[in-house]
Structures are given as C-alpha cells and as structure tokens.
Amino acid sequence: MARYGMVLDYKNCINCKACEVACKEENGILLGADKHRIWVGTGEIEGEYPLLSIASSAFIPSQCQHCDEAPCQEVCPTNATYYNENGVVCIDPDKCILCSYCMNACPYDARYVDTRAMVIDKCTFCSDTRLARGETTTACQNTCPTKVRIFGDLDDPNSEISEVLRTREHFSLKSHLGTEPKLFYLT
Amino acid sequence: MKIAEIKEFITTIPYNKVSLKDLLSFEKTKVNILLAVVTVSFLAMFIIGVAIYLSHGHHAYNVTREHPWGLLIAVYIFFVVSSTGLCIVGSLGDVFGFKDYMEISKRAIFGSIVTIMAGFAVIAFEIGHPVTMLIYNVLTPGFTSAIWWMGTLYGLYLTFMIIEFIFLLKNDMKMARYFGLTGLLVGLAAHSNLGGVFGFLNARTISNGVFYPTYFILTAFITGIYLAFIMYGFRYKLDFTQSATKMLSNLAKIQGLLLSILIFFVTWKMLTDIYGGMPNRSEVAIHILQSWTFWAEVFLAMIIPLVLIIASSGQSIKALFWASLSGMVGIFFMRYNLVHDTQLKPLQMLKTTEYQLVPTWVEYFPSSTEIMISLGGVGLCLFLYYLGTKLFNLDAATTH
C-alpha cells in the first residue's frame, strides 16, 4: 500500500495547459470549460503600469488535493466518496446520489458533475487508468514539458517526492482549514 | 400485535368517504375560486417542470459548478422548516398538555405531514439519484454526514407524525402524546442537522459554526406560528371563535418574543460576521447587507409582523393573519438567502479556464424549470391540505 501525493514546482509552470489536455484525454473527461479535474490557476497581475508586479502573475496548477482529512469524504451521506488503498480520494459511482454536498464542502473547487455518467467527478491521480495499468505516473505529470509535477509515495523515504519534500521548502493550499492536503507547492 | 388487530386498527381510522364530486364542490367565494385556480395552475407547473427535468436533467436548472445548490434546495428547506414549526405548534397541546392549544393539534400535525411531503416531492427532483439514496442510505450510511442524519431522521419523523395523526383522529390522546413527543424530538434533531449541513462547511466561512443549527429551530417555531394563523384564518374566514381568538392571541405574544430573539440573533450574526475579522466573512456579510433579498427577509418576516404584534398587543388577529402571509413570504427569502449566501464567495482557486477574470461574486438566478417545480411544491401542499380537510375532521374532537 502506498500513500500517494504530488509536489508542484509551480514556478516552472508556463501555462501551456498540456496537463489539462492530457487529463481530459487519459480519463475521458467531458469537453467544456467547467468540466475539468485539473486546471492552471492564473494570478492577476497587480499594480499599475509601469509599476506592475511580475511576482503576482504566477501560474498555479491545481486539482483535488487528496486531503488526509477530506471534507468531501466526511459529508458524503452514502460513503460514495472514499479513500482507496493508496490514500487517494475516489468516488464509487454506484453509490453517488448527486446531492452535490461534496461540491459545496470542498474548499478547493475540485469537483464537478459529470453529466454523462451522472456522478460527481474529480481527480483520482489516474487510479482508474494509468495506475490501474501498472504505470507509475499520472497523465498530467507525464506530459508536463517543464516537469512541474512530481508524483509518488509519501510513505517511501526513498521516493523522489519524499526526497524533494525533505530538501525543499513547500506549502499547501488553505492548510489552515485542517484538511491536510497531499498536494505540496515548492517555494 | 396480531395481523387481525393491525387490520382492525387501520380499518377503524375515522375518515370521510370522498367522491370526485365532493372534491370539486366547495363554497364558490372569490377567495376559494382564486385558491383553486392557483392550486391547479401550480400543480400543472409541477408536471411541466418535472417533465422538462426528466428530459434534460440538471441542464434544465441554473445550478453550476460554483453554485451547485439552487432554488429547489431553498424550497425544500422552506417546506421542512414549515413542517417542523407546525409540529412544534401542534405539540403544545397534545404533547405538553397546554389546553388552550389542544384545538389546533390535529390541524397542525396534518399540516406538518403535508408540508414535509411537499418538501420531499421537491427534493426528489434536485437529488440526481433519489432511488440510489434510499438504497445506500441504509447499506453504506455516512455517519459523519449531516445530510445522512437529516434525511434519515426526517424519514423517521414523517412516520411518527403519521402515527401521531392517526391516534389524534382516533382521539387516543395518550398514544398521540407518546408518538408526538418522539416525533417532536426526532424532528428537532433532524432540523438542527439541516442547519448542521451548512454549519459544518468549513469551506464557507459565512455559514460555518453553531449559528444555523440553533437558528433553524427558532425560525421553525416562528414559521409554525405564521402557518397556524394562516390555516386558522382560512378555517374561520377571519371570523374567529372565542377559543380560537384566545389561542391565536397567545400565539401572537409568543411570536412577538420569538421575533425579538430572532432579530437579536441576526443582528449579532451580522456584527460578528462584519467585525469578527474572519477571512472571507466580512466582505460576504457586507455584500449580503447590500442585497434586496436580505431586506425582504428582514422586513417581511421580522419587522412588519413584530410591529403589528406590538402595536396591537397581540390582540388584532385579523391584522396578524395578513402579517403571517407577509411573514411566510419573508421566510421564503430567508431560506433562499441562506442557500445563496453560502455559495456567494468564489473558492479562490485562481481559475481562468472558465473566466477571463475570476468573478468577485458567484451569480445565480433560478431557471423557469426550477421556479415551476418550486411553485408546484406549493400547489401540492395546498392540494394535499384541501384533500385533508375533506377526508378528515381536523378540528378538535370536542368541537363536533
């Protein structure tokens, strides 16, 4: 059993959105701007010309944070949202009643209604596709041209992700909410 | 209990045999005809709305990824609050033994059954998989979910209310008291869990906390009293009997106190929201203060009824009937605001996939299908209540 997480060296992101495309292709995500498991966040440039803040215009790729204390899992009335054996937050489509409570409870806006399967969908770290085929990378990570993403087992001290987290400063999004995300951003 | 005894128990429930002709025959006053037209129109809207929903699914609604809960959730809350409120009012007499309120027990308990059934009818077309819900609510219950507790307890509550109503019809006050007390406690637990559905959301700081679970009980009682005035106003055509006047006058005084407490609560909620220094809370509260729906809630549900109660010392029952109609419109805005305000603030994940610029506030206005199903819920409520007045004697047993 692993405990999968992801590190994002977000300052390397060039906003090419190849990760968004790869995710849609690999996982069969519906077309449409609001149907996405992952996205590239774009900070608005602050200040007035010519005193513009270049630092404010960072690209911040994001997705489900696969929280250890996931609010979406706690509020699910039928336990359709569950942690799989690798600590990945997944959804059992047979049990989902489409009450949308998880969409309201998720602080990261990571969930949406898949109107084809009629289920709430979200990132699963490619658990049903690439990982199920025995691969060890996610689609977004594999395609990234600037190698923003590092995916791996947080419990394995010899994994690349553990090594990076030991040696680089990092932060998590909205960590004050106590969700204990497994997505880490390198500073 | 043997099967024969159960059969006998059911067959001896007193009710009037009603034909279709009886249903269509009512006193042809202007108000009655207007109500009949409204009820039939709303029921027709319900059928049309449901047909559109069944054809197009959630595409027929204006709910979005950013605003997943819309009008139907608000209307569901509106109905279940009404139900809990009527249960509280009905319990004053038959559970707590206050004799002055005994005469409204049967009517209020029947009203609580009708309103929750209308609520269930509306929510069935908001939940994407209602049948799956019934199955997996039992097979894999989510005990940490306020929705699970709320839904399960409301199911139990409806059962207890029906049993209590049957005992009231049979004039078995002892058994009615047992089931009434159990139903009341289960209903209060269910209703506070509905507040908990919002109170547990740590992603939405405007709703998070203890406020809603407690406030829901208070506003339920207020809603129940408004509905008691409305039901009695129609029952007696505003020409109240002496006992009804006494009861309603007492209820008006209780309502005055409850409304004062509510205004006090809401004032402090706003003050702590705005000045409490919690991230993402004060700007949302200020935005709420600038919305007309908030002031509709405040004036229609709180200020107008309270001023009338104080001005007449709770004695002007006719004026309070009209104030109660205003109150119920205000209560609707209260529920709508609760649902919409919770989702006002975008979750700030810097998304520009859907927008060129991330919006400051999430916008929502219900679609025609949502409005039709919601009005249909009101039509269903009116129709079931009318059916009840034909089928059962809803007045106290001593008055006939």
Written description of the protein model:
The complex is a heterodimer of chains A (187) and B (400). Chain A has 187 residues and is an alpha+beta fold. Chain A has a domain at 4-69 and 124-186: Alpha-Beta Plaits (2-Layer Sandwich), CATH 3.30.70. Chain A has five helices and twelve strands. Chain A starts with a strand and ends with a strand. Chain A has helices spanning 18-27, 71-75, 101-105, 139-143, 160-167, and strands spanning 4-8, 39-42, 46-48, 51-53, 59-62, 81-83, 89-91, 112-114, 119-121, 149-153, 170-171, 183-186. In chain A, the strands form five sheets. Chain A has a four-stranded mixed sheet with strand order 10-1-12-11. In chain A, strands 2-5 form a two-stranded antiparallel ribbon. In chain A, 18% of the residues lie in helices and 22% in strands. Chain B is mostly helical. Helix content of chain B is 70%, strand content 0%. Chain B has 14 helices and no strands. Chain B starts with a helix and ends in a 9-residue tail after the last helix. At the A-B interface, β2, α2 and α3 of A face α6 and α7 of B.
